[in-house]
Amino acid sequence: MSLAQQATDGFNQFNLRRQQVGLSTLSRNAFVDTAAQGHSNYQALNDTITHTQTVGKPGFTGINLGPPITDPTDVTNRLSVAGYQFGPGEFAYGEVIAKTGDTSGVNAANDLITAIFHRFVIFEPVFTDAGAGAATSASGATYFTTDFTANGLTSGLGKGHYVVYPVSGQTDIPTTFFSDSESPDPVPNANAVGFPISVHADITSTVAVTTFTVQPRGGTPLAAQPLTPEGGNSAAAIIPLAVLASGTVYDVAFRGTVDGVAATRNWSFTTK
User: Fold this and answer.
1) pLDDT digit string (tens) for 45-74?
2) Is the pLDDT of residue 210 over 80?
3) DSSP per residue, the chain
4) Which CATH number fits domain 163-271: 2.60.40.3780, 2.130.10.10, 3.40.50.970, 3.40.50.300?
5) Is the pTM for the entire model greater than 0.90?
6) Stretch 224-241: mean pLDDT, rounded?
7) What is the CATH number that goes with domain 3-151?
8) Which of 98, 153, 195, 198 is 20 to 30 A from 271 (CA-CA)?
């Protein structure tokens, strides 16, 4: 499989899952593609996984992905260097990266969705455009990058609305998430834990959790680690602290508020 196809397959898998969740699909943007491919090239040339590039190293295209929120006129970032133009109003951007020995873009995308801090980015409702790239290092590692953008923050779900993942009735959910594989590590004192469960609202929203539980059908709630995105409260998640049982129905209960609006959701999913 070509690297271009791997990038496309990963991009399409993100859109498939976003649509399944109830979010808008992302438009593929040639400028964002250029930024993502450039960053994959940089990582492959230096055989390191990183969101930040170093001036003078092979493949350098820009230190950071996008401009500071306080200075949207900055054009030294990777998106601006690639030709992407931010509007004068509010904007957002994000990036997910993976280092893998697998040549499947679908698998890379699914692994990133499992990784909860990356999922917060992938399932950000306001994002409208994205680009993807892949490159292989001399050691044989493949670096997969997807960058996400939004000019304006009004294209999401709207005030008080949210989506959940896994979705209601979803099957073949992995039993295990290897927490140590994600940086930052969402469960620092454990590696093999259960599949993360999450609630997502617009980046401008506030999700407040009253109770958030998961339990095997007919059982009792599992011990779980609560999480929110770094630097924000527009999403929430729980990670079961033990690996889930295979072929089992799990019931989830969420109670709280989204932008002050009462939010109650009960749903279930089934593991592989």
Assistant:
1) 999 999 999 999 999 999 999 998 777 778
2) yes
3) --HHHHHHHHHHHHHHHHHHHTPPPPEE-HHHHHHHHHHHHHHHHHT---SS--TTSTT---SSSS--TT-TT---SHHHHTT----SS-EEEEEEEEEES---HHHHHHHHHHSHHHHHHHT-TT--EEEEEEEE-TTS-EEEEEEEEEESS-SSS-TT--EEESPTT---B-S-EEGGGSSS-SSTT-SEEPPPEEEE--TT--EEEEEEEEEETTS-PPPEEEE--TT--SEEEEEESSPPPTT-EEEEEEEEEETTEEEEEEEEEEB-
4) 2.60.40.3780
5) yes
6) 96
7) 3.40.33.10
8) 98
